[in-house]
Amino acid sequence: MRFVATMFVLLAIIIVPVAVRAHAFLDHADPAVGSTVPTAPPVVHIWFTQELEPAFSWIRVTDKAGAAVSDGPSAVDPTNNQEMDIKLKPLPPGTYTVKWHALSVDTHTTQGDFTFQVKGS
Ligand SMILES: [Cu+2]
After folding, report:
1. pTM, whole model, 2 decimals?
2. How far is the CA of 104 from the centre of ligand 1 (A)?
3. What is the CA(26)–ligand 1 centre distance, in A?
4. Which CATH number fits domain 24-118: 1.10.10.10, 2.60.40.1220, 1.20.1060.10, 1.10.287.990?
5. What CA–CA distance (Å, rounded) separates 88 from 62?
6. For residue 86, which of 63, 75, 101, 107 sits 20 to 30 Å off, Cα-Cα?
7. Residues 50-89 pLDDT 10s
């Protein structure tokens, strides 16, 4: 009986924080967060932990000087509402900042940013 009670406490500790973190956060990205890539990526893909509201979610990609390097606006993938993509102009070597803003279907907004680096030849 004591074992069962202990298991319940352990489960509560494990499960409760997951429920609290139910907004749309970055799950993973391509290029990966903080990564260095050998060639310029044509698109930045970000996968989120929850489905997004396309009208109120966006990505911006800028170079070190703060200039936008995207080729058109970002878009939520019509076949996967947990994925948002943005096309890029041909990027010279350097460090780029990806800023994202997401409105999840649970009406919570989240935002964040990360960088990736395109390696010089
Ligand atoms: Cu939420």
Report:
1. 0.81
2. 7
3. 13
4. 2.60.40.1220
5. 10
6. 107
7. 999 999 999 999 999 999 999 999 999 999 999 999 999 9
